[in-house]
Amino acid sequence: MNLSLLIAKKIAVYEKKSFSLFISRIAILAIALSVSVMIIGSAITRGYQEHISQKFYDCWGHINITNFTPDPSNIINAEKISYNDTLVNHIQSTNHVQRVQPYTLQSCILKTDEGIEGIILKGLYDANSFKNIEQFLVEGKPITFLKDSFSNEIIISKTMATRFNFKLNDRIILYFFSGLNDAPRARKVSIVGIFNTGLDEYDKSFSLCDYRFINHLNKESNDMIQGYEITLDAIENSNQVEKEIFDNYLEPPLEIYSLEKRFGNVFSWLQMMKMNEKIIIIIMMIIALINMISALLILILERTPMIGILKSLGMSNLKIQLIFLYSSFYIIGIGLFLGTLLGVGLCLLQQKFGFLKLDEATYYVNKIPIALHSENILFILFSTVLICFSILILPSLIVRKVSPTKAINFK
Fold it and tell me: How far apart are CA 365 and CA 198, in angstroms?
């Protein structure tokens, strides 16, 4: 039988009415709260990153192919390209590519009694182009794509509908300009749907239509497009796919851009949130360590007479040291279990019921998003155990300095 383990169980768990037991419970509570905060903080940070990123991917794909532009964040390129069926087939056959969708863009003016607003029409190629965005449709229906002609239907954002008091089936007039000296061209379109992505800049600026409507307006053939949106099976494969397409299929002036380049400010901001996650984990780890070191020192201090007796009976310093390390391990283990239970439980409740709300106009989401990953939870737990146990070896060395004769008489 492991005598050090047996004694450790008694003084850490089973002994009643001692000051060290009270301190042990405080340490358990501190570790539980620290671990739960680490799990919740990490889940919120990752949830926010994944949720916002996915919204951008749903609206624009993971990768765009357009004519070269010095500024990838410039979404509208004046020079359009011709649809290339061979290129689309090559890209579609590339590993990890799920879908390739052509699109086109056109700026225009929306004039109403409430004011004038500049907007951008995004022309969708066909019904399949609407699949990723359909989840954001809050009213109405998708655009009806006619076989032999373009559609005059348009889908606007909830932000735009609220601002101008638009409703489904309203007919509105859009004004288009070809050049500074050209007279504006007016076109009447019908609102068939209202979407809400929660991405404020997107909802303020973009409306959706049939790409052939834009080409007809510009007197262009239906082969002319702005570029291609490429949707992948996972964002982790973006660099690999981007390199393969660029090396094998693209010719100047075509260029390939990841969405991180096109919306650099947003993705840089999301990337910075990882620093917040690290800061939370470091602070909570320090709190857990301070409480554990305090608990261990008090445990050793209160058990000084016991140390003296065990030394006088011939127990080695290492075995006595292990008693207090085992005791610490019990405290850490119980704290980790309770903290994991509390942290994961609260995260699951938020995932299911979404009781913590946010201002969507400010935070891009209407409730606090949660992303629980088992590997992330295990990393937090193993890191806590490893760091705490490694650091606690130092204060436990005090046992080696205790004199048996002085310790027995210690009060």
Answer: 6
Please list the pLDDT of the chain residue by residue as tens digits (411 residues): 577 777 777 666 555 556 667 777 888 888 899 899 999 989 999 998 889 899 999 999 999 999 988 888 888 877 888 999 999 999 999 999 999 999 999 988 888 777 788 899 999 988 888 888 888 999 999 998 888 888 899 999 998 998 888 999 899 889 887 766 667 788 889 999 999 998 888 888 899 999 999 888 888 888 889 999 999 988 889 999 999 999 999 888 889 999 988 888 888 888 888 888 888 888 888 888 887 787 777 777 777 777 777 777 777 777 877 777 788 888 888 889 999 999 999 999 999 888 888 887 777 788 889 999 999 999 999 988 888 888 877 776 776 776 666 655 655
CA-closest candidate to residue 291, choices 29, 15, 21, 14:
29
Task: Give CA separation, 195 vs 55, 130, 137, 189, in Å.
Answer: 13, 11, 4, 17
Contacts of 333 (CB under 8 A, 6+ apart): none
pTM strictly above 0.90: no
